[in-house]
Amino acid sequence: MMAALTHDIARAVDPEDLPRLARELGVNINEVEEAAPILLHGPVAARWLASRYGVEDEEVLAVARWHSTGRAGMSALEKVLFLADKVEPEKAAGRPDLEEVRRRAETDLDAAILRYLDLQLLEAVRQGWPLHPDAVAARNELLLGRQRRGQGWPPVPNR
Fold first, then answer.
1. Tell me: the pLDDT tens digits for 29-75?
2. Residue 47: domain span
3. What does pTM read for this prediction?
4. 87-122 residue pLDDT tens
5. How far apart are CA 127 and CA 56, in angstroms?
6. CA 142, 145, 151, 156: dihedral to nearest 10 degrees?
7. Do residues 55 and 2 make contact, with C-beta atoms less than 8 angstroms apart?
8. Last residue of a domain, one of 39, 68, 97
């Protein structure tokens, strides 16, 4: 419950202020986050939860930290909050492609996250956006895991 209620604690911070604030809190910032500073609201939230509010639960901090990008090695709680954050009604308005993600989530959380990340990848290509390395790592982990289990994605091509 705490993870759901607190993951967006830094969302109201002006994106222009997030890089400075993140640095002050000791967050390492990558080039993608420099280009899209709104992605820093998760890492800032995690630091605030720990330093301002004494949150010590590593899973709650991880939910806050990676709810915008995802990451390889997400716990079940991280996956649920990541996906819920992406398909909540306000964000999903006008995006019929997210209905497929919601349907998949009813039976296969990993398949739903993978589909969401695929949709984000396609949008990034269309818009010319860089891909966050943590999102790429999450997608690769999910995709390769499904391949190992024989769940229908094509194998990685031989070089």
1. 999 999 999 999 999 999 999 999 999 999 999 999 999 999 999 99
2. 1-68
3. 0.87
4. 988 877 888 889 889 989 999 999 999 999 999 999
5. 38
6. 90
7. yes
8. 68
